[in-house]
Amino acid sequence: MQFVEANGAKIPAIGLGTSELRGRTCARLVEQALKLGYRHIDTAQVYENEREVGEGLRASRVRRDDIFVTTKVWTTHFAPHDLERSTKESLTKLRLTEVDLLLLHWPNPQVPLAETLGALAHVRKLGMSRHIGVSNFTVALLDEAVAACPEPLVCDQVEYHPYLDQTKVKDACARHGMALVAYSPVAKGRVKGDATLARIGRDHGKTAAQVCLRWLVQQNVCAIPRTSRIERLSENIEIFDFELSDEEMGQISGMGSAKGRLTDFGFAPKWD
Ligand SMILES: NC(=O)c1ccc[n+]([C@@H]2O[C@H](COP(=O)([O-])OP(=O)(O)OC[C@H]3O[C@@H](n4cnc5c(N)ncnc54)[C@H](OP(=O)(O)O)[C@@H]3O)[C@@H](O)[C@H]2O)c1
Question: Among this protein's residues, is 183 annotated catalytic?
Fold first, then answer.
């Protein structure tokens, strides 16, 4: 496993995304992923699966210290008191004393950003999370957050895959010493049928999805692919035994555009 270092955090480059995984399926996938060598699990309050993620963590019998657990505070809990209370609830559901990374899930213009960041830094000081960060923050919001936050932010978790150019956010993260964590890293499954990725994969004996994930980690980006299929857990982590050439990296980067975004929850910030 490779790691991405960011403002004091050491984040395993591949993690398991868990949105939409529920109940026993979720607990089983988390357990299996950890048994297969995953060391990074991504959940969120709004996924309503923190309890099952916690069950999977315990069932795996992997040492807690060896696992990097991220959860995210939902936007309705951004008032300082709510942020602290909801983080305590997350920890209770996960049955953990602390998470490794606590993120603001989306920007919320209804609550002053500095207040929310102050509360986020405070819960870190209280020992509820080892690190803090943000998600779905544009470059402008990221610059504002870094300036306002009393503690270092370690990542911006944003949508990133070969169809979406994220050069600006990636550069901003690098400027601030932060990691970019790519969500929807296999473009919600769309990369599977991609002719360019499949062709590059044939030369390396890898699948299109593996080429896509390799392209991400080779940029020093973390990726958190989700799967509900045990066999794909191995596929998505077996990407550390080959390397893409500069030319192959360039070909894949050339597929991206500003219009390639797949996530639109209707309350997204203005990205450009
Ligand atoms: N911060 C945010 O606002 C935010 C937003 C979205 C997502 N996320 C996080 O990022 C994680 C991943 O994003 P995502 O779930 O949107 O998309 P994703 O991981 O790009 O795609 C998941 C889909 O791709 C399929 N898939 C996975 N591996 C595959 C492979 N090797 N070959 C072919 N298909 C494959 C899965 O199907 P099967 O189940 O059939 O394998 C699933 O339908 C989420 O689970 C969540 O933890 C965060």
Answer: no
How far apart, in whole angstroms, are the C-alpha atoms of residue 96 and residue 87?
A: 11
108-153 pLDDT tens trace: 999 999 999 999 999 999 999 999 999 999 999 999 999 999 999 9
Neighbour count for residue 205 (Cβ, 10 Å): 9
Pair of tokens at residue 98: 């602390």
The DSSP element (H or E) to which 82 belongs, if any, is helix 80-94
Report how far ligand 1's centroid is from the alpha carbon of 16 (Å).
9
Residue with tokens 């395993």, as numbered in its chain:
12
Q: Is the dihedral of CA 94, 184, 30, 12 positive or negative?
A: negative
Q: What pTM was computed for the model?
A: 0.97
- Does the beta carbon of 71 sit less than 6 angstroms from any atom of ligand 1? no
Residue pLDDT, tens place only, 240-252: 999 999 999 999 9
